[in-house]
Write a structure and sequence with these properties.
Helix 1 packs across helix 7, helix 2 runs antiparallel to helix 4 and helix 3 runs antiparallel to helix 6. The chain has 2 domains: 280 residues, 3-Layer(aba) Sandwich (Aldehyde Dehydrogenase, Chain A, domain 1), CATH 3.40.605.10; 182 residues, Aldehyde Dehydrogenase, Chain A, domain 2, CATH 3.40.309.10. 39% of the residues lie in helices and 24% in strands. By secondary structure, it is an alpha/beta fold. The strands form 6 sheets. A 7-stranded mixed beta sheet has the order 15-18-19-14-13-20-21, with helices on both faces. Strands 10-9-8-11-12-22 form a 6-stranded mixed beta sheet, with helices on both faces. Strands 1-5-4 form a 3-stranded mixed beta sheet, with helices on one face. Strand 9, helix 6 and strand 10 form a beta-alpha-beta unit. The chain is built from 15 helices and 23 strands. The longest helix is centred in the first third of the chain and has 21 residues. Bound molecules: NADPH dihydro-nicotinamide-adenine-dinucleotide phosphate (NDP). The site of NADPH dihydro-nicotinamide-adenine-dinucleotide phosphate (NDP) has 30 residues, from helix 7 and helix 8.
């Protein structure tokens, strides 16, 4: 019988109301495990337990939190290969990338262990004689964390670690497609001595478990990463309980290649940005905006490199691109390939592939001759597909790059300091990359976007305090 994995509520492993199968998208015969789906009543129990546990947890002070996070970081590092294997099996990321993601999660826990000891305030002179004014940061309270399937270790880590570091109690709901990695992290957090109620794991569908978190009055803040429609629904529903919200959503990230770019570098950056991790990154380069003088040479080189990518099972040593995460996602990607043709693009690659095992394999795709007003250039596909848009000059490139409802990441490949600087200043996004792929970021600096990509304070680095704390201004007289 396959392992059954339970939810963690108030320090106890508890069943839900049914079990959900977790299957390997590289090999559908591989049943990874069965995971308990929580109910709205479970969310309520978790929220009450979290609220009850908070005062004692906060009284312990920052050193207890720093030490807990440090212990978690060590365990995650020590078990990186095992967790990475789980991640590769359930999400489809190739094993080296999966292990690297887990190590990143460990770095994030370690970083916030340090941050727990650096929570600073301010003291100002009052405009009234004899009065002192201080500004301090206090924990938000009980926070709900809702995560997507594409980074099953890193995204939970970059929400859980700051939440705990700044003294909050956590309820984590991972995406139903990838409960295994989150469950392993939860076990580590629990076993390393996180007090009962301070960290809770509730698995199950977003429409039930996530929705119950959004509606719960004891949950003061909700940090979500996922698609725009879900983010919008959360923003609307969250208003009813006046929740503080942090929403990280999609992207349609442009990568500009100018005539003066180092072609080797540009092809490598676009190959990585568009297709690695099967294109399932919110920062993936899904629009390649290429200046006319270099367009044909660039397309020829990128096509050759793309068609040479080895698509295969996540655990196979020679795979460079793993499967698409699910049947539904693959169907959606293939529909976009058809749409690209219908909209007038020349499509290279993009077809479903047979692998050595039954899985959701797809050859990466380039949509040549795309126009920026086509649906394939405006809608997030979230698969290994990139639209190539030819432009005349830098000004047109920047204007096309900004002509999108999203604003997460944008890149430019150029040898011109002038154009690099103008792009850094002019791109209406949260993250700009010069001669680097649009995907791939550091963990100690802010992450997030503008326009439809993000709502609320930035994630990661010390700026995460903006969301996970609330400020108190105190005035005192006398003494
Ligand atoms: P979804 O929006 O479908 O789901 C994200 C999470 O929200 C899941 O845990 C899901 O649960 C949950 N959820 C679904 N419905 C509700 C609801 N009504 N109330 C509360 N929670 C709900 O996104 P995906 O998981 O498909 O992830 C892909 C998306 O994430 C892409 O659009 C991508 O761009 C974005 N993303 C953004 C990043 C960023 O930082 N900007 C980083 C990574 C991804 P379940 O799936 O279990 O039903």
């Amino acid at each position: 019988m396959t392992d059954v994995h339970l939810n963690l509520i108030d320090g106890t492993w508890v069943p839900g109301d049914h079990l959900t199968e977790n299957r390997n998208p590289s090999d559908l015969s591989d049943l990874i495990g069965r995971y308990a789906a929580a109910t709205a009543a479970d969310v309520d129990r978790a929220a009450r337990a979290a609220a009850a546990a908070l005062p004692a947890w906060q009284a312990k002070g920052p050193l207890a939190r720093a030490e807990l996070l440090d212990r978690i970081a060590r365990r995650v590092d020590a078990e990186a290969e095992v967790i990475g294997r789980m991640l590769a099996r359930e999400e489809g990321k190739i094993l080296p990338e999966a292990i690297a993601e887990v190590r990143r999660a460990a770095q994030i826990f370690r970083f916030y262990g340090g941050e727990a000891l650096r929570i600073a305030g301010e003291a100002l002179a009052s405009v009234r004689p004899g009065v002192d004014v201080t500004i301090t940061r206090e924990p938000l309270g009980v926070v709900g964390l809702i995560t997507p399937w594409n980074f099953p270790a890193a995204i939970p880590a970059w929400k859980v670690a700051p939440a705990l570091a700044y003294g909050n109690a956590v309820i984590l709901k991972p995406a139903e497609l990838v409960p295994g990695t989150a469950h392993h992290l939860a076990r580590i957090i629990h076993e390393e001595g996180c007090p009962p109620g301070i960290f809770n794991l509730v698995m199950g569908p977003g429409s039930v478990v996530g929705r119950a978190m959004v509606d719960h009055p004891l949950i003061a803040g909700l940090s979500f990463t996922g698609s725009v429609p879900t983010g919008r629904a959360i923003a609307l529903a969250g208003a009813a309980t006046m929740k503080k919200l942090q929403l990280e959503m999609g992207g349609k990230n442009p990568m500009v290649v100018l005539d003066d770019a180092d072609l080797d570098l540009a092809v490598a950056a676009c190959l990585n940005g568009a297709f690695f991790s099967t294109g399932q990154r919110c920062t993936a380069s899904s629009r390649l905006i290429v200046q006319a003088g270099v367009h044909d040479a660039f397309v020829a080189r990128l096509t050759e490199a793309m068609l040479a990518l080895r698509v295969g099972p996540a655990l196979a040593e020679d795979s460079q691109i793993g499967p698409v995460v699910s049947a539904m996602q693959l169907r959606g990607n293939l529909d976009y390939v058809d749409l690209a043709r219908a909209e007038g693009c020349t499509v290279i690659g993009g077809e479903a592939l047979n692998g050595p095992t039954e899985g959701y394999f797809q050859r990466p795709a380039l949509f040549l001759g795309a126009q920026n007003d086509m649906r394939v250039a405006r809608e997030e596909i979230f698969g290994p597909c990139a639209a190539v848009i030819k432009v005349a000059d830098f000004d047109e490139a920047l204007s096309v790059a900004n002509d999108t409802p999203f604003g997460l990441s944008a890149g430019i490949c150029t040898a011109s300091l002038k154009h690099a600087r103008a792009f850094r200043q002019g791109a209406r996004v949260g993250m700009v990359m010069v001669n680097l792929p649009t995907a791939g970021v550091d963990f100690h600096v802010p992450f997030g976007g503008t326009k439809g990509s993000s709502l609320g304070p930035r994630e990661q680095g010390r700026h995460a305090a903006e969301f996970f704390t609330t400020m108190k201004t105190a005035y005192s007289f006398g003494g």
